[in-house]
Specification:
The protein is α/β, with parallel strands linked by helices. It is globular and about 45 Å long. The protein is built from eight helices and four strands. The protein is 35% helix and 12% strand. A four-stranded parallel sheet has the order 2-1-3-4, sandwiched between helices.
Length: 191
């Protein structure tokens, strides 16, 4: 079994990784990716204070990706999902309000939201979810980021019930609502 956290960037995938690690899963990631906080952060904003938990770009390009991670938890952003070879997977797919993603992305990359296509987000995410649901080797759980932040225990209990080998209470303890800094109800939309 390989455990995967996926979704679009800025949708809570790193928070989910951190929580699942705290809950007991053994994760694989490249610590060199942590440079992004120093590169893109400043005294007022750190994109991912808990870490990014990403593999290197080269890891995603390996011919046998992700089969080298048997028994491990990995983060695989949505764009790399098409590459996963037949195996047994448990996948948690993170969704978020697209305007929240756009504004978080702009804060991360200093007003460069050109890489995020707001009007295509819903269709692209639904296509990815449908593709994963069509696979017999994937056990898929879909979560909304904000719902996990607001009620982490029940979401991690849901994963435990679905066969994820985690302690839901320990996983929930690391979810910090103050790090959900881009909430649609507090944003000026359409800038």
């Amino acid at each position: 079994m390989i455990y995967i956290v996926t979704g679009y960037m800025r949708s809570g995938t790193s928070m989910m990784m951190q929580a699942l690690i705290a809950g007991g899963l053994d994760a694989a990631y490249d610590a060199r990716r942590e440079h992004m906080n120093a590169t893109y952060g400043d005294d007022y904003y750190q994109p991912n204070t808990g870490g990014f938990y990403e593999l290197s770009t080269l890891d995603y390009k390996k011919d046998n990706f992700p089969l080298d991670y048997e028994g491990k938890l990995i983060k695989c952003l949505r764009g790399a999902l098409w590459k996963i070879k037949p195996h047994e997977y448990k996948i948690v797919f993170m969704l978020r309000n697209p305007e929240e993603i756009r504004q978080s992305y702009e804060a991360f990359f200093t007003n460069r939201a050109d890489g995020f296509i707001l009007d295509q987000y819903q269709d692209r995410m639904q296509k990815s979810i449908d593709d994963m649901r069509d696979r017999e080797d994937v056990d898929l759980t879909v979560f909304q980021y904000r719902e996990v932040v607001e009620d982490p225990v029940s979401h991690f209990e849901q994963l435990k019930t679905a066969g994820w080998p985690i302690d839901p209470i320990k996983a929930a303890e690391v979810v910090d609502p103050s790090l959900c800094r881009f909430r649609i109800e507090n944003l000026v939309v359409g800038l």
